[in-house]
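Predict structure. Input: Bacitracin ABC transporter ATP-binding protein, 305 residues.
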Amino acid sequence: MSDTILKATNISKIYGKHKALDKVSIEIKRGMIYGLIGENGAGKSTFMRIIMGLISIDEGDIELFGQTGMQGLQRARRKMGQSIETPALYPELTARENLQVQAANGGVSEREIDDLLRLMNLGNTGKKKAKNFSLGMRQRLAIASTLITNPEFLILDEPTNGLDPSGIVEMREIIQRLVTERGMTVLLSSHLLDELSQVATHYGILHNGRLISELSQEELANETRQYIELETTEVHAAVIVLDEFGIRDYEVINGTEINIYERLDDVAAINRSLVLANVDVLRIGTTRQKLEDYFLQLTGGTSHA
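Output follows.
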């Protein structure tokens, strides 16, 4: 069994003179929670619709579960679920009745329903009709509807959009359980890196239709980790003091700034050593690059659309 669920190579989609996607290549391995991050209009939904076969591509190749070509991809997509085009919910029916209808439509048994209701925290909704559900409950029911056929690969387009903080936490926990309890692979999107960082294992950053960065959870943490920021007019002398102090993990940023990535609790001691060595310290303290600042730094933006 191949570990690669999705391999998209040089995918392009053009609408008139606008390139919605420009040679995007993404590979998703089994068990990943792959977060696609980008501003509104960056191409996230377009990419997801292409993978699901809802729109065609103008350039590139797609491989799903090792399958290629029109017939191969059609077979592979039977192993997939998606919330891009939300399945119709029947407002006059209960959660259980909605899933029974979806099971009938999918030609599968109803044996998964109890487990899905539990998984989606809908097990206690009883006779409550879907029209009386909160937004979060409706979104969880919609996802449950896509899971009724027990897919291996799930695509979720902005699953936390519009939810309140408690609903966001609940959705995040559900996505993680889909991977740990049901062995799924997940591709999800958001325009908020901070939100994705709390659930995804890997990230792809889209900007103006291009994939400008890919990184793992560990790499993202490293890019945005806490550090000691030292500002001095005597960088060379400061480096000598840091070396004598036993600090090895640091970076000279420019002619006046040094970032120190270890011994974060020793700011006072480091400062004292610098002062004793007659190094002029203009500023020293711990800081952390915010995730959204990191995203904006990559995209060259100032705010999200």
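The domain at 225-288 is CATH 3.30.70.100 (Alpha-Beta Plaits).
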